[in-house]
Amino acid sequence: MTEKSEYSLKLLEKLEDEVNSCINCGFCESVCPTLPSSGFISSIGARGRVDVGKEMIREIKGKGVIELKVDESFYSCLDCYACLQVCPAGVNAGKVSEIGKEIITSGELTIEDQKNPIANMIVELTMKYRNPLGIREVCAGWSAGLQFESESTNLLYTGNMYQMMAYNETLGKIEKSMGDAFSKNMARYLTKHSGLSKYMKYFRNKKTEREMNSYLKNIYSLLKDSGIKFTYLHEEEPYPGTFIHDLGYEKEFSEYAKYLCDLFHERKVKTIITVDPHTYDLLKNTLPSYVTDFDFKVIYYLDLLEENDFQRTSDNITYHEPCHLVLRGEGYNRPKKLLESIAKVSMPYRSGKKVFCCGGPDELLYGKLSSNISEERFRQLKETGTEKIITACPICLSNLNKDDSVEDISSYLINRRKDNLKEVQ
Ligand code: SF4
Ligand code: SF4
Prior knowledge:
The chain is an alpha/beta fold.
């Protein structure tokens, strides 16, 4: 083996630790959403990803370098961790994909550059503009005219997530209709000419933008009505960096994590109120291990709402659980509990530890795969036969929004607040 840096050797060790206990039983394949949606291409499934990891180690040990093309296998992973829930050996194929992407981005172990140009663009723009599409300022639009408590140490942190869905939809459509090569070339061009991202605002779907802004306003009102005081960073609010981490850009993520942590300290934040599962999971379970001074309390806005404030109804609804809430850390099921206090909740067969991802994380890189997964999840949700499907994540909502039955939890809740109902009567 040719001389490798300490960082690369550590990456290999991490990969070996993760794949070595695999006994090749295939249980993980039975729950992995990307395998059937890819037409059963084995390297686009959980066991296949572990096998690719094992082959990479064999190549390094034999030839000193990875010749195998591994990018599609790892970048197409949803990071949902459904595979980990069923693996008798405790192997996490999602983690294997994360390490695999880190190996690709480090560039030292592969014979050719396998970095995904769309991933590169996202990381480049985030590092430069603190937003994956360079639209941070536009993302504050929803808050126009609303009052915040600038002295409060509670920060309402949207992470720009709801706001970006208006762009994801259009960009996802471009990827699906123009093809992978076109999107990659467009991403390469934008990476080189990042200043052009100022025109990104013309790619938004205005109807989706209005809807997403209305959900953020619902969240604002739900918190205000509950007597919570909070501030907001407006145009300065940065994206949390989830993509940088999930796409395997470890060094960049370390830098970004420090920037984010410093910003919160500078603004004297003590409690971060998150509004989406990806930001909550990142701040709760991942980011603290990248910095030394993460001393903030991280909560989900639903934690601050009282069940008694909502009217019990005769509704029969279906709830789609976000993987990043139920399959990460300790698991988090406050949205389900809150909904159960208001309505009869019918859960689809794939729920709890068996939850099936909406396909959203693949939207920008593998549009067709993502829409196959969301079609399947939508079918599973419809099978419960209820009139409403409730989501608690902007990405799930955007991907599953295939008819009028799908609704964000914030709009479901706000319409069932006791005060709200009294006003209507
Ligand atoms: S379930 Fe675990 S042990 Fe079985 S094939 Fe998948 S990774 Fe290997
Ligand atoms: S994390 Fe999800 S998409 Fe990735 S291998 Fe596991 S089950 Fe499949």
